[in-house]
Amino acid sequence: MRISIIVPAFNEETVLIASLRSIRSAAGVFARLGWEHELIVCDNNSSDGTARIAREEGATVVFEPINQIARARNKGAEAATGEWFVFIDADSQPSKELFQEMALHAQNPRCLGGGTTIRFDEQLGWAWFALAGWNLLSRTFHWMAGSFIFCRAEVFRQMGGFNLELFASEEIDFSRRLKRLARRRRGKIVILHRHPLLTSARKLHLYSRGEYFNLVARTVLERGNNLKNRSNCQPWYDGRR
User: Fold this and answer.
1) pLDDT in tens, 72-86
2) Taking a C-beta distance cutoff of 8 angstroms, is the pair 44, 111 a contact?
3) pTM of the model as a whole
4) What are the distances in angstroms from CA 174 to CA 107, 154, 225?
């Protein structure tokens, strides 16, 4: 078995080292199983030291000039050679236990892919309720958080990767399409929850509750069509770090 770990990164020099070291440590689980793995960072047109740091940390670096998360993930997947793809955000830190649980499901021929619940690296009052709500939705509807998605490579290619029409919420679109495919193939999708992914709460400091509420409200009113325009997706693309 070979696992391709793909990290999309746009101006992430302040958090990337910790994330890549966490990934490399957790990936020891694969080595103990006798599996190979590779670490690919997609530099999504960064203007800081993201690409340099990734190379220094031993990752293969590919470049995507168009600033879009879906494109960055797809570009990383183009360079990947594994039988399974694992997409991890540049501000997230998986544990050995999470990778071990994922590996157990990867050995099940019926499993096509999945995700995990998440937890923040700090407690921030109201955000706890939002996070609990997301984790409940994720487990109920099998929606994968973009910060951690794993999928069979052949399934990813059959689906055509992530939707390039979307600048945000592409992971929800991916989840829905993967569920439809799983039903046709009598396969299954799993949302892991025993060892939630640790991810950064930094954006909760960078954006107000009002900004988030307005984004969610507009997304509901426009049925997600606003997410097809990068200018409407500020938390991902306006450069605040």
Assistant:
1) 999 999 999 999 999
2) no
3) 0.95
4) 22, 14, 16
